[in-house]
Structures are given as C-alpha cells and as structure tokens.
Design a protein that fits this description.
The chain is of the alpha/beta class. 29% of the residues lie in helices and 23% in strands. Helix 3 packs parallel to helix 5 and helix 7 runs parallel beside helix 8. It is globular. The relative contact order is 0.15. The mean pLDDT is 96.
Length: 294
Amino acid sequence: MKLEPVFLGTGAAEMYPNPFCGCETCERARRNRETRLRAAFLLDETMMVDFGPDVPAASQHWGVPLYDMEHVLITHTHEDHFNAATFSVLTMTNMKKKPMHFYLSSAGLAWVEQMIDTQRGMNGTFGNMLSSLLSQGKIAFHALEPYQTYEIGGKRVTPLKTIHRGYGDGETAQNYLIEWERGVWLYAADTSLYGEENLVFLGAWAKTHGALDTMIVEGTFGSRRLPKDSGHMDAYQLAQQMADLRRVSALDRHTRVFITHINQVQHFSHAEYQNYLQIHADANITVAYDGMRI
C-alpha cells in the first residue's frame, strides 16, 4: 500500500495535553481538542522515524498500516522514541513477512544489546522480548555513525550528532538527513541549537547539493525559555536556528519547515505558536499537527 509522509505524532514525552495535568495549557488543549501523541514520523510505507508507545494507535487512527514497514530510524533510546509497548504489538502477529530493521547510534545500539544480554530469558522484560523477536528473524539492529552516508531502503541516510542525551553510555540523539524521491529532508528531533560541527557539515553539503527541501525540527518548549545547551529547543531558539541555517545556505525560501515534538510545559496554543514563528522566524515554517500529511 503506497503511503504519503504523515506525522503520526507531534508531541513530546509528556503528551499534549498530559493526561495527569490540570494546568490551563492542558485544559485549553482539551477544550479545543488540540491533542498530540508522542512524536513519530512516517516517510512512506517502508521507512519511518522513531517507534514510540503511540505508534500503533496512530497507525489505526490515521489509516496508516505498517505491514510493509522495513526501516525505522531511531533518534535515541528514550521511551517516547523507542518503546517496549510497540514492540509487543509486533510479537502478536505472524502475518508480517519482512523483518523490520532498526537503526541507532553505536552507543544506543550498545545499550540495546546490553539490555538484551542481561534480560534474556526473563519473562516480561523488554530485553527478552527483543531477544525473541531477533531469534525469530522479525527484527534486526544496525549502528549508524554520524556524518557517514548509508544506502537504506532506496534512500541515502546521513546521521547528524546532537547533544541530547539518551540512555546509552555516551549516547546522544541522532538527526537524519534523508535523500529520496521527494528531495533532501532533515528530521531534527530531539536536538538543540546546532553547534559549529553541524553547521559546517550542512554548509558544505549545501555547496554541492543546495538547500534542504524539507526540514522537520523539534520545538519542544515553545514559549518557555531554555538555556542554550539544554538538549531541546524553544521558539526563540527555533528562530535562531533558521537564521543559522540560512547563513550557511542550508535553508532558503523554498525550504519547507515543520515543527514537531511539542510539550504542555510551554504556554503557546497551536495558533499562538504559528503566529510567533511567522513573525520571528524568517522561514517557510508550519507548526505540524497529528495526522498532517506533507
């Protein structure tokens, strides 16, 4: 079944609104039915980014079956991006004929392998579930090194390193530069303001490939100011990120930018967030929503 790119979720780990929170932001979101599942993005029927706990529900809700899914780019090992509950659904069918390949940083993969080794044979554990799926040939894991390009499922994928910490020893989240039939896309969550290493890399890339066609970037904390090296982004830093990417020619007026991974700790509504970015971020930028197809 041919599928088009869709945001399966645009929320952060807290969900939006947080089911256990009664703050005004969450209450307003409930009144307006402005809800966000935890972030995941589907490029097409064979490739997606992240495998969090809301992926099965989003698949059902948005009419996006995953039986042809073969390649999953994992940004990092936090539960909202890599989750036992979603793998458990995979254990409950024998109809999926092709294995699913999961791609992580080497440090992230080392954490997964350690979990498998220490929990193998222990019923009810994530590691034992992964061990069983591996032995059945239903899944496979692969390490990707930053700034190296890989051929994956007919696409060229280049990870970029961030400072957002994962669970593995020394693990930081990877952003993914993807060259495919729809152009050059960058999926950038979880992340913070890009430092010199990423800006130099993207500037050199732009000299030979041109500006990005599409960028999907986190805006987790919206109206709430963050320190520069927090590992996440706010609306003010998003505006700076756009300026930095324009400076190195990685972004131009044709680049479509979409904001995802938004939490309820900040106070912008969807409309307020969009309005702020239209005024302050010099880019073709849209705050994404769950189920949005691009």
